[in-house]
Write a structure and sequence with these properties.
By secondary structure, this protein is mostly beta strands. It is built from no helices and eleven strands.
Length: about 120
């Protein structure tokens, strides 16, 4: 498995979680990466993305609450999603993804991690 996500769980509204994704292999240092989420009965949506030069982009629904970042150690790229002020509508399975800079679509995917926001 090249992309491994972790950090999901159950949190109360207003709480915080930090998701992590470990992308094994030096090839990922040259790839743009992103977090997607999919809630039950809904289409998968892009939450946040980050380029190799750390340019970021966020869905309107998470701007000001979520922060995406990346770090590199040895042959592993670590992708993070800091989620603050969580709302029940943030409940979903969150997945990390990667793509080559010249591609439009993400083509490397990790398994999802469940985030549940509930009191």
């Amino acid at each position: 498995v090249q992309l491994q996500a972790s950090g999901g769980g159950l949190v109360q509204p207003g709480g915080s979680l930090r998701l992590s994704c470990a992308a094994s292999g030096s090839i990922f240092s040259g790839k743009a990466m992103a977090w997607y989420r999919q809630a039950p009965g809904k289409q998968r949506e892009l939450v946040a993305s980050i380029t190799t030069t750390s340019t970021t982009n966020y869905a309107d629904s998470v701007k000001g609450r979520f922060t995406i970042s990346r770090d590199i150690a040895k042959n592993t790229v670590y992708l993070y999603l800091q989620m603050n002020s969580l709302k029940p509508e943030d409940t979903a399975v969150y997945s990390c993804a990667a793509r080559a800079p010249w591609k439009a679509a993400y083509d490397s995917w990790g398994q999802g991690t469940q985030v549940t926001v509930s009191s």
